[in-house]
Amino acid sequence: MPLTAVPRTAPARRRTAPAALAALLLGCAALLLGPAAAPARSEPLPLPSLMADTGGGDQLITARALTTGSTTGTVSWWQRHNGRWHQRGSAPARFGSGGLTEGRTRQQGTSTTPTGLYDLPYAFGLDPAPPGTTIPYRRVGPDSWWCEDNASASYNRWVAPLPPDCAAGESERLADYPTQYGRALVTGFNYHRPVRHRGAGIFLHVNGKGATAGCVSVPAGAMARILAWVRPSLAPHLAIGTVFGPTAIVRY
What we know:
The chain has helices at about 5-35, 45-50, 220-230; strands at about 60-65, 70-80, 85-95, 100, 115-120, 125, 135-140, 145, 155-160, 170-175, 185, 205, 215-220, 235-240. It is of the alpha/beta class.
C-alpha cells in the first residue's frame, strides 16, 4: 500500500504551527495595545499644501474645474493654523460660458474665466454686508458702474457716476444685476496694472441663471459665508485653476 501520504501531511502541519502561533500572538497584542498597535494611515495633504504659491497669507479660496472646457466646479475656502491648512467650507461653483483659460494671455470678450492667483481688494453688493464682514464693502447704488471700456482712463474700475470717457455700452451698471451682484468680491485679475483688452470685472459673486461671462459664482448662502469669513489681516487670495494640465491649480 502506498505510504507517501503520511510524510506529505506531517511536514505541512509542522510548517503551519509557527504561523498560527504568530497570528495568535499578534491578535493578543492588538487586544492589549488597542488601536495604537494598528499601522498609521497617512492623510492626504490639503489642496493649498500642494500648490506652488498661496499668496503668502493665511486664508485662501480655491476655485477648481475639471478641465478648461468645464463651466462648473468647486469653490473651497481654507485657513492656515499652526502651519497647516484646514478647509472651512465648500460649495458648487460656476465658471465662464467659454470655460477657463490662462489668465496671463486671456482676451476680453471671450467669456472665459482667467486662471491664476489673485488678491481680493474689496467687496461690494446691493445687499448689506453679512454680519461679521471685515473686508471693505461698498454698497451698490443707481449710479454705480464697472468701467470695461478699453479706451477709458477708468478701465477695470468701479466708477460712480459713469465718466464721459467710459461708454455705457461697454460697461456694467452694477444695479442691473441684483441677483449676481447681491454680494461680490473684487478679484485682483488685471486690476492693479490693467492691460487693455485683457479683461475687466472679474468677480466672485452670487449665482445667476447659468454660466458666467468670466467670473466665478457660488450660491448666495456660500457667498455670504465667504464674506463673513474673509479677514484682510490674513491676506486672503483666490486661486483659479483646473485639476490637470498646464492650468492645474497646483501650478499657481
